[in-house]
Design brief:
single chain; about 290 residues; alpha+beta; 6-stranded antiparallel sheet; about 35% helix; about 20% strand; elongated
Length: about 290
């Protein structure tokens, strides 16, 4: 649950700050005209919130507590300010919707998922899911036979985004050590799982599979390179299709990677591209550093 309060104070430079609390965290912002915003995120199962009619008094007491906890940090936002509207409460629980593709609808942005506000990825998530929507819609309307592929493409990417952002948020919460043993922080620094945000990859874990991809504004199926760190697969890099190249590299294990790449791509790429592409593959764990 996130509580929001708008206040008005004297004009001053724009500023923002974040503050951890025993039972949550607060974000504070000030606009040049003196308008200030305070956002406090709490867990209602840990912190008992008042009924609606008592929320204004509760919020006033909470802001006073914030000012006492960190007077130097909060002074630009809470000093000599007065509430300019009533407090508002909004849900801020991380939620992933299933069935994001229907016969007459497509879920994107907040309709598809909500991510924890601490990681700050809400706008990116909305844009990412919206940018893939036209290709999905185009495929559903023009190529009904590819409907399962379009559904898989949209839902799998939403699932991948959600868990990526959830783990980013988890790692943010884990950086708080002052209140690490408090229930609010304990719950969030271990959710959604213990999987690392980025996984180490070794060549034996890299494989080729068929996955839905966007091509010419439509959803098609193509060969991609799948790794533990890229479970949705990588189709091409700067126009170089990666699955055929990886297959050729594995068919010629005794040759230097740079030479195999150069022979495979010929003069379609700049002279230094084979070396850079081989370095990138090594950094991704596709090749050993001795190849």
């Amino acid at each position: 649950m996130t509580l929001l309060q708008r206040l008005q104070g004297a004009s001053g430079p724009a500023a923002s700050a974040a503050l951890s609390l025993p039972d949550g965290w607060a974000w504070l912002a000030r606009r040049p005209g003196g308008e200030c915003h305070v956002q406090i995120t709490l867990d209602p199962t840990v912190t008992r919130l008042p009924p609606r009619h008592a929320m204004a008094d509760w919020m006033s007491a909470r802001l006073t507590s914030l000012a006492q906890q960190a007077p130097a940090l909060t002074e630009p936002f809470l000093g000599l300010t007065k509430p300019s509207d009533t407090p508002r409460a909004r849900g801020s629980t991380s939620i992933l919707q299933g069935g994001c593709v229907g016969s007459r609808y497509l879920r994107v942005g907040d309709a598809a998922m909500a991510v924890d506000p601490l990681s700050g990825n809400g706008i990116f998530q909305s844009l990412s899911s919206a940018l893939q929507a036209p290709a999905v819609i185009n495929t559903l309307l023009r190529y009904p036979s590819r409907e399962p592929l379009a559904r898989e493409f949209h839902q799998s990417r939403l699932d991948g985004l959600f868990y990526r952002f959830a783990r980013i948020g988890r790692d943010f919460y884990a950086q708080e050590h002052q209140w690490a043993e408090q229930p609010f922080w304990q719950a969030r620094c271990h959710w959604p799982d213990a999987e690392p945000l980025h996984r180490e990859v070794t060549p034996d874990q890299v494989h080729i599979a068929r996955r839905p991809v966007v091509a010419e504004g439509e959803i098609h199926e193509a060969e991609v390179v799948v790794t533990p760190d890229q479970p949705l697969g990588l189709w091409h890099l700067n126009g170089v299709y990666l699955a055929p190249l990886l297959r050729r590299l594995r068919a010629t294990p005794d040759l230097p990677a740079e030479r195999v790449i150069a022979d495979a791509l010929g003069d379609r790429i700049p002279d230094d591209a084979p070396r850079k592409l081989a370095l990138w593959m090594r950094s991704q764990g596709w090749l050993t550093y001795y190849r």
